[in-house]
Amino acid sequence: MRLPNWCIPSNKNSGLSNSFFLTTLSLCVFALTAPSEAVGATLKTENEGTVDGQNESTWQAPSPSWWFNQYSLLQGPSLTNPNPYQPDVRGDPDLSRPVALKNFSTVGWETPDRRGFAGTFSWAALAGEQAGLALRDPSIRAYDSALVENDVLDWYGDVRLHLGLGPESRLLGRDFSLQTFHSVSFRDRSFPLWAGVWASIKLSRYNSDGNVPLWEFYIAPNLHWASSSSLTFSLSVEENAGIWKDLNSPDYFRSDPWYAEASLEWQVSPSVEVSPSLSVPLEGSISFNSLSGSLGLSWTLQ
After folding, report:
1. Residue (of 122, 89, 145) closest to 20 by Cα position
2. Which element (helix H / strand E) includes 57?
3. At 186, which CATH number?
4. Tell me, what's the pLDDT at 30?
């Protein structure tokens, strides 16, 4: 079992920094869990003196393992008015958000109890006036895929350190950011429908005096339906908000429009997942021009 890629905030909103929550992964996104068989490996079978059919004198506890994940996310333009930019809430091209292919390469180390560490290197290919390749802030994180895990509740959590090495962070004077991300799911495991919430808080340190986002917040209630073992349909609504460094400014607190996203997670194989999605803002003048699509591709080696 692993935390699915849809737990990564897609950051489609335009008011906050474009690097907001793009670690990643995400999401967490890239926080992969060890096979569930490892959890039961310490339980004795009906045969006294054996563990999973092995003699106690020869049985060894599962050892930590390394894993790798490559995740690519294409954030496209308006579906009815394609151009090099993603649409804003009115359906017009948002010049601050070019069409982008974002890539996240993550290497992690995990213990059998599904705790671990991971590092992510991220870069993006941009269209429009910013056409070219852009480095994203790399990050490292410590995670626990089973902070709480029982018949009705799954709780994933992590703490991340983002290093301000990308061009956007250097422009803003951002040295580093600390972030914590959580994914909580409420479900009856005998039923294919479940609900959850993704949430994150991020604090950044700067070496400049400009009015820049100091605290950033993300929340996204979500609903999922597994139609089969390989297909899951998801619906989420998400919001980004932030507190700017200059508290004397009249707009020191800013929030983006709520966005709704419908997605499909297709587990093509045990190591490959494809996830197309559609998103639309829930504020402003909602139109077909403001409808945009994205496509995610995840490949895992463990």
Report:
1. 122
2. none
3. 2.40.160.40
4. 38
The pLDDT, as a whole number, for residue 247 is 73
Residue labelled with tokens 């993006």:
124
Measure the CA–CA gap between 108 and 187, rounded to whole angstroms: 28
pLDDT of residue 31: 38
Residue 290's φ and ψ, nearest 5 degrees, are -85, 0
- Residue 55: inside a domain: no
Integer CA distances (angstroms), 294 to 10, 84, 212, 277, in order: 9, 14, 28, 5
Query: In Å, how far are 43, 94, 207, 244, 256 from 17, measured between CA atoms?
Result: 48, 14, 17, 11, 11
Does residue 259 lie within any of the structural domains? yes
User: What is the tally of structural domains in the chain?
Assistant: 1
Mean pLDDT of 173-201: 95
CA dihedral of residues 206, 207, 209, 210 (deg, nearest 10):
-50
Q: 191 is in which domain, residue-wise?
A: 5-41+62-301
Q: How far is CA 247 from the centre of its chain?
A: 29
Q: Which letter does DSSP use for residue 164 in this model?
A: -
- For residue 135, pLDDT beyond 80: yes
All residues at 6 or more sequence positions from 57 whose CB lies less than 8 Å from its CB, including other chains: none
Evaluate whether residue 49 is within a structural domain: no
pLDDT tier, 248 (very low <50, low <70, confident <90, very high otherwise): confident
Question: Does residue 50 lie in a domain region?
Answer: no
